[in-house]
Specification:
Organism: Marinifilum breve
Number of strands: 5
Shape: globular
InterPro entries: Archaeal_FAD_synthase (IPR050385), Cyt_trans-like (IPR004821), Rossmann-like_a/b/a_fold (IPR014729)
CATH topology: Rossmann fold
Bound molecules: [cytidine-5'-phosphate] glycerylphosphoric acid ester
Order of helices and strands: EHEHHEHEEH
CATH superfamily: HUPs
CATH architecture: 3-Layer(aba) Sandwich
Keywords: Nucleotidyltransferase, Transferase
Structural class: alpha/beta
Protein name: Glycerol-3-phosphate cytidylyltransferase
Radius of gyration: 14 Å
GO molecular function, one term: nucleotidyltransferase activity
Number of domains: 1
Helix content: 25-40%
CATH class: Alpha Beta
Length: 129
């Protein structure tokens, strides 16, 4: 069984998020998703996501393409998560192209094309206007 792992915030869940999860799942037989915590987001962007980590996790774990979820507490722990969850493949969107190549010694690393014209940031901007 081929185990796939991916990571993300998945705030204001949208079609780009769904498409990457579907395509990540199609790379193997079992999809594990690391959901970045509110604290991790705050440390990166000095602001919290709109949806809490609990709600973001509930949404992701309810998807039929997702088999298992956990909280990603630190960007530095990616290698540990890959080992802990016995991942054969790491999938990320190509906005992260090249950024996780160091994990090629642990598993296959695949970057998938981002869905154009949609992002959480753009949704927030449109609503604000
Ligand atoms: N994504 C996509 N198309 C979009 C928007 C996002 O394919 N239009 C993908 C991203 O490339 C990423 C995933 O959806 O692989 C989750 O995106 P975000 O919620 O923005 O998560 P991010 O902040 O990139 O992840 O360790 C990484 C962190 O958890 C951060």
């Amino acid at each position: 069984m081929k185990r796939v792992i991916t990571f993300g915030t998945f705030d204001l869940f949208h079609i780009g998020h769904l498409r990457i999860l579907e395509r990540a799942r199609a790379q193997g037989d079992y999809l594990i998703v690391g959901i970045s915590t509110d604290a991790l987001n705050f440390s990166k962007k000095q602001k919290n996501p709109i949806y809490t980590e609990k709600d973001r996790m509930r949404i992701i774990e309810s998807l039929k393409v997702v088999d298992e979820v956990f909280y990603e507490e630190s960007l530095e722990l990616k290698g540990e998560y890959i080992k802990k969850y016995n991942a054969d493949v790491l999938v990320m969107g190509n906005d992260w192209e090249g950024r996780f190549d160091e994990f090629k010694s642990l598993c296959e690393v695949i970057y998938l094309e981002r869905t154009p014209s949609i992002s959480t940031t753009e949704i927030i901007e449109i609503i604000k206007e």
